[in-house]
Automatic annotation (TrEMBL):
Protein name in the entry: YCII-related domain-containing protein
Record Pfam families: YCII
Family: Belongs to the YciI family.
Superkingdom classification of source: Bacteria
Sequence ranges assigned to domain YCII-related in this UniProt record: 16-91
């Protein structure tokens, strides 16, 4: 498995300010899409970035290959909506991950 960075570029520089009802609806589908990917363990982290130069979205994914990363981007409802959203997909050759928080760590049944 390898990691990829997916950068979601919005349809215009001032997005999400002034987003239309259709854009807001497709963004809700987009959030559901990535929440499902996180639930299956494919998406490591997903969210918006409020850069002063313009908002964009990121997803860090762990997949088999570049083809699967591109497929995740291509199947995102915001891309399928043809409202002007697009992804840039880049490999992450090395990743340092933190240990899960204690609340998420496996429970040791031998401890009392």
């Amino acid at each position: 498995m390898v990691f990829f960075h997916l950068k979601l570029l919005p349809p215009r520089p001032d997005f999400p300010l002034g987003a239309s009802e259709k854009e807001l609806a497709v963004m809700a589908e987009h959030a559901d899409y990535w929440r499902a990917s996180a639930d299956t363990g494919v998406a490591v982290a997903v969210g918006p970035v409020f850069d002063p130069a313009g908002t964009f979205g990121i997803a860090i994914v762990e997949v088999e290959d570049a083809k699967q990363a591109e497929q995740l981007a291509d199947e995102d409802p915001v891309v399928l909506s043809e409202l002007g959203f697009r992804y840039e997909v880049s490999p992450i050759p090395s990743m340092i991950l933190r240990d899960p928080p204690a609340a998420l760590a496996p429970i040791n049944p031998d401890r009392t």
